[in-house]
Amino acid sequence: MSRKYEELYQAIKSSSNIMIVPHKYPDGDALGSSLAIYIALKRMGKNVWLISHTPIPSKYAFLSENYTFLPLELVPSDLDLIIGVDCADKERLNLSDDYLKRAKKVVNIDHHVTNDQFGSINIIQPVAATGEIVVDIFDDFGFEIDKDIATCLYTAIATDTGNFMYSNTTQNSFEKTARLFNTGFEFVDIARRLFLEKSLAQTRLIGLAISKMEMFQDEKIALITVMKDDMTQVGAKEGDCETLVNIAVDVETVQVAIFIREITKSFFKVSFRSKGDVDVAKASQVYGGGGHKNAAGCAVNGDFETVKQNVISLVKDMFFKSE
Amino acid sequence: MSRKYEELYQAIKSSSNIMIVPHKYPDGDALGSSLAIYIALKRMGKNVWLISHTPIPSKYAFLSENYTFLPLELVPSDLDLIIGVDCADKERLNLSDDYLKRAKKVVNIDHHVTNDQFGSINIIQPVAATGEIVVDIFDDFGFEIDKDIATCLYTAIATDTGNFMYSNTTQNSFEKTARLFNTGFEFVDIARRLFLEKSLAQTRLIGLAISKMEMFQDEKIALITVMKDDMTQVGAKEGDCETLVNIAVDVETVQVAIFIREITKSFFKVSFRSKGDVDVAKASQVYGGGGHKNAAGCAVNGDFETVKQNVISLVKDMFFKSE
User: Which sequence spans correspond to the domains of chain A?
Assistant: First the structure.
């Protein structure tokens, strides 16, 4: 057992009252990893409180069918241990210094290399998902990984690796997931929920977006626009727009995909996606936005037709001028 | 080394001229596994011919960028060894008895439990993909698995497991894939090509199909119809229809998805998909079709409106009568 793991093990062993905290606006990794730890500690006979600062996204509701993520207010004040899970920094742990003083120790289990080491015990490993670290810790401690815990940790690893397709995926992601497969957990059902199922409104919105998709520059540029009326027409919610730009960038000829969404009549959110070396962060920076080489965004003021023409011209001039 | 592996190793060692045969109408597993074996045997200094009875689907064209799948006619007649890869039976190997007599031995490497053992050496293991067996054989033989071979074997395992989401996926699928990850192969690019990218026509066809999708029985039944005119309108090809029924079954409320495709004005192909215990093979059997519990199909004669009404009534009566 490494020194860090030994420290964590002793801290758990000597604690009675333990609180587990996923980062605010929790994703599959934060929820799955923290719930796995909750189940294991309950089995050890500890008093454990699992909280969430913000609501659980409906996509992950299946995780909390048998377990409840409590609001912070319901946790008693005499804690021995606070375990932050998948929190890259103290801000995402979202607990005041006064609150942290209630506990004898604060554990910080996370996979972000930029982690600010807010804990008294910091277990930070640069892997794709915190779930991978939890598998490792459980095996090291000899904690049983059964069906319920495997469900949580598969959700953690599979979501943070984009179903094993994001570039953060490593040998370790596959090895730790392999480790979960002898438990007989219902991975087909869970994979369906996580990666395939959509609401009817989301499906209708995809249909509408494709029907409105425009192609430019020999099908190297694709534009999808969604107006407020479109959202109303199909009964879509705010979050239903999130992945629409992927439909455009997944067209095989496309090098730059643009997604324009109407917020008000004169204010639009613009997302860019690209393939290979086309650096769309440069395009978003023109409008004061940010992002990465292959995924960036900005906000633009103006009337729709002007915004649209300006954004298309910008992309054409910036990336396809020589053609 | 197991006796079977030892037999295979000796057969390869004592052979100079070797032909490798993926099953006809090859998929990602057949192509990836057979190309991996081709590369390894070439490196051993063997004379190797890799054939394909039928064209390579464009989705897998990247595999043959540096390698050519030859037509059978270009293979010389003096062979020492024929290796059938991912061929569940002699029919899919697609070689006459006379042809097989050209070789001293026939090796049969496959993962279908129903395999008819057509080889003189049969290596049949009930795993999700033949690619998993090839990883095991190469490690056993001490063959180097580098970037090129990892590309082939990842394609084999990832496609046959539906990107690790089909129910055939096991601990072994993840372990064998993990094994490929220390080679630095471009898995993000390959995963994109295999699972995300679509032609513009395929994307337009999805949009059109969603816009025409009809819901019945409190959104538990979804119907998608594609007519010949729809195909023409978006420039879609025959194969572009294949996965459209999934869009309907992936709507979270849907229990039965129906896909009707016009072949002629009075002849239609009908596909059914279902979730959980709803056995749609029963519905396809009414029209003399077949399939499995959750995926079945049949062909139906009649004019479109009659066919459509009859199929919907059938599904309602068979699965939702008590509601």
Answer: 3-196, 200-319
